[in-house]
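We include the pair:
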Amino acid sequence: MEACGDTRVVEGLIPLAESFGYFSVLQALTQGRGTFTLHFERYEAVPILLAEEIAQWCRDQQARRLRR
């Protein structure tokens, strides 16, 4: 963490999926004063268990569409 006057700057890397909902949490924790920026850093392989979950979800979605 870096201090810049009354401001605190925190830098870190997180998976994109983990960033959803972060703004709401940040606003709640900082009484609406917190802000953040997000930028793409790199691609990484999805862990195999998560990849299997995603593949199963896709198969389920396709099966539902075919049943219509």
